[in-house]
């Protein structure tokens, strides 16, 4: 989460501006509301991309650490490091880090499904199910801490 705080500050600044425009410009209120929704979508995707990057980094560290220690040698040797990010699904990497069936995996998979809908243009509504973007940002930061901690404990 290299840019987590800066991304959130940028989101707040833009959302505040759009909110003022939405409140002040009655004639174009629907347009400003749409802009705020699109802004929420953009930042949602960016936050999920940050946690996806963290998952990739932590999973690669874990696999390298296990290979170096020769822990369960054959099991870890079958995981190829070349093109690791593209070769393995996000859920597989999460399972390595936090265990199968973890609530962390379920939460992130739900976020990722919505991220994919936004990124591929099939979600046009609000993100109300996740609360405000500020709530999502806090949840993502907490999940990131849990992933990092559990990955290091492996």
Task: Write up this protein.
This protein is an all-alpha fold and 154 residues long. The chain is built from seven helices and no strands. The two termini are 20 Å apart.
Topology:
Elements: H1 4-24, H2 29-69, H3 73-77, H4 84-87, H5 90-98, H6 103-119, H7 133-153
Helix pairs in contact: 1-2, 1-7, 2-5, 2-6, 2-7, 5-7
- Principal-axes shape call: elongated
Output the radius of gyration. 19 Å
Averaged pLDDT: 85
How many DSSP helices?
7
Distance between the termini: 20 Å
Tally of strands: 0
Low-pLDDT segments, ≥5 res: none
Largest β sheet strand count, sense and barrel closure: none
Number of domains: 1
| Beta-strand percent range | under 5%
List keywords for this structure.
single chain; 154 residues; mainly alpha; 7 helices
Give a quick precis of the structure.
This protein is an all-alpha fold.
């Amino acid at each position: 989460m290299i840019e987590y705080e800066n991304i959130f500050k940028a989101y707040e600044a833009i959302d505040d501006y759009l909110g003022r425009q939405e409140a002040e410009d009655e004639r174009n209120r629907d347009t400003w509301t749409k802009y705020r929704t699109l802004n929420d979508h953009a930042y949602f995707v960016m936050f999920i991309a940050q946690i996806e990057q963290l998952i990739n980094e932590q999973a690669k560290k874990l696999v390298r650490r296990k290979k170096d220690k020769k822990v369960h040698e054959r099991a870890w040797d079958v995981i190829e490091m070349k093109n690791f990010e593209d070769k393995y699904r996000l859920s597989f990497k999460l399972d390595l880090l936090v265990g199968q069936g973890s609530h962390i995996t379920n939460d992130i998979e739900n976020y990722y499904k919505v991220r994919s809908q936004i990124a591929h243009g099939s979600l046009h509504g609000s993100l109300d199910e996740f609360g405000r973007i500020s709530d999502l940002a806090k949840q993502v930061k907490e999940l990131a801490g849990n992933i990092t901690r559990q990955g290091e404990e492996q």
